[in-house]
Amino acid sequence: MRRFLFVSISAAILVLGRAHAADERPVILILGDSLSAAFGIPVEEGWVARLQRRLDAEGYDYRVVNASLSGETTASGLQRLPRALELHDPAVVIVELGGNDGLRGLPVAELEANLGAIVRLSRLAGSTAVLTGIRVPTNYGPRYTHDFFAAYGRVASADCVALVPFFLEGIATVEGLFQSDGIHPTVEAQPLLLDNVWPALEPLLAGDAPCLDAGPAPVSLER
Predict the structure, then answer these.
(1) Distance CA 62, CA 92 (A)
(2) Which residues pair with 185 in a beta bridge?
(3) Residue 13: pLDDT band with limits 50, 70, 90
(4) pLDDT at position 46 over 50
(5) Which end of the chain is more exposed for a tag (fewer CB within 10 A), N or C?
C-alpha cells in the first residue's frame, strides 16, 4: 500500500512538473479582433489554435495565448496591451488589428499612431512584434483605402518589425471563404490565414531579427 501511494504521488508530481514546465514556455501573444477570436466557428478550428498545433508539430517550444476580442480596435487593443504584457511576458506579439478601425472610418493617422504605439510598447516589454496588414473595401474611397493599407508598411518599416503584408491574402476575393456576414472567414479559410502569418513568424522563432526596408505596395481590396 505504501509503495503504491509513493508511486502514485511520484507520478502526480511528475505530471505537475511537466505542466509547470509547459507553462514556462515562451509565449506568443495574439492581440487581435474577431478574425483571430474564431468568431462564428469552433475555437479549436481557428487559425490561432492551428498555430499552436503547428508549433508543436514542428518542434517549436512556444505557448500561444489568444488575447483577441471581437470588436477590438487599435485603440482598445493598445489600452489592453500593458496588462497582457504584464500577465504573459510574451516573446512575440502578433498584432492583428485595424479592420474595425477601417469599418468605422478611423483617420489613417490615428490608426498609424496606435499601431506604432503597440509595437513600441511591446518592444519596451522585451517582446518582438509581428504586424498583420489589413485592407478595407473600395467603397470607402480610393484615397482612404490606399492610405489605410499603406499605414501598415510604414509602421513596419519605421519600427523595424516583421510584417504580414495582407492577412486575408488568398481569401478576401474568394467566394465561399466567408461566413454569411461577408466579413468573417469560414473554417475552410483558417489554414490559409495561418499560412499567411507563418512566413513572417517562423524566422523570429529561429532567432532571425526582423527589419524591413519598405512596406507593401498599397493595393485596394475589392470584394
Answers:
(1) 10
(2) 178
(3) very low
(4) yes
(5) N
- CA dihedral over 28, 194, 43, 149, signed as positive or negative: positive
Q: Which of 9-13, 21-25, 120-124, 138-142 has the lowest mean pLDDT?
A: 9-13
| Active-site pick, 34, 36, 68, 122 | 34
163 CA to centre of own chain? 11
Phi, psi of 62 (to 5 degrees): -125, 155
Q: Which of 20, 23, 180, 181 is an active site residue?
A: 181
Which of 76, 157, 184, 220 does the annotation list as catalytic? Answer: 184
Question: Is 184 a known active-site residue?
Answer: yes
**pLDDT tens, position by position, 73-82:** 999 999 999 9
CATH class of 25-205: alpha beta
Active site residue 213: no
Residue 87 to residue 94: CA distance in whole angstroms: 16
* C-alpha cell recorded at residue 58: 514542428
> From the CA atom positions of the chain, what is the Rg in Å?
19
In the chain, the amino acid numbered 208 is: D
20 is catalytic: no
Mean pLDDT score, 47-68: 98
Q: How far is 6 from 59, CA to CA, in rounded Å?
A: 33
Q: Cell digits for 132?
A: 498583420
Residue 122: name the closest of 146, 101, 91 by CA.
Answer: 91
Cα-to-chain-centroid distance, residue 98:
12
